[in-house]
Amino acid sequence: MLHYQKERLLKLADFLESLPRRKFDLTLIASTNSKAETPSLNTCGTAACAIGWMPNVFPRACKYEDVVLPKNEYDFDYRNYNNLTVEGKGNYDDLTDFQLAEAFFGLDPNKYESEFLFDPESYNYHRRGNKSVAARIRKFANGEITQKDINEAVGAKENGVRNW
Fold first, then answer.
1. Based on CB atoms within 10 Å of each CB, which residue in 6, 53, 131, 163 is the most buried?
2. Which domain, by its residues, includes 122?
3. Is residue 45 part of a domain?
4. Number of domains in the chain
5. Rounded Cα gap, residues 140 and 15, in angstroms
């Protein structure tokens, strides 16, 4: 891992640790409020996962682009989809959230690193809070996580057992 990639991960971990718990939800990229405002520390009713907070942590490189969706057969009231874009890497239309994280943080897709860090299914159900996610990101960035740890967490997800 290159120095700047490690620094980015540690910066994200620092930010996540400082978040109020109600502003973090590992199960979704971002939730907007009734005003369609994207996650921010200053907006009520918004939350995001670690990847969803990237535009707040790295505002020059990551942003949300508002996209208006056409009405569908279910006629939902909610119309705005917040498209995450990473400068020079693509956007959510082209890449999955995990692929955007891999590109930005220099994670190896063949080693399941982004799934290990950001997929809620690789976490124990009771350890999905912002502080647990920040701790895992920090350990990974500092080289304290082995490939065996990653394989067990991601493999446990695939087998329906979460032991991390």
1. 53
2. 3-157
3. yes
4. 1
5. 16
Of the candidates 9, 3, 108, 6, the residue with the CA atom closest to the CA atom of residue 57: 9
What is the CB-side half-sphere exposure of residue 118 using CA atoms within 13 A? Answer: 25
Q: Is residue 163 part of a domain?
A: no
Is the pTM higher than 0.85? The answer reads no
In angstroms, the CA 87 to CA 60 distance is: 8
Residue 164 lies in a domain: no
Both tokens of 34, joined, read 């009734």
In a domain, 162, yes or no: no
Q: How confident is residue 5, by pLDDT bands cut at 50, 70 and 90? A: very high
Tokens 């446990």 map to which residue? 156
- CA-closest candidate to residue 118, choices 6, 27, 5: 27
What backbone torsions phi and psi does residue 130 show, to the nearest 5 degrees?
A: -60, -35
Which among 139, 154, 148, 155 has a CA at the least distance from the CA of 1? Answer: 139
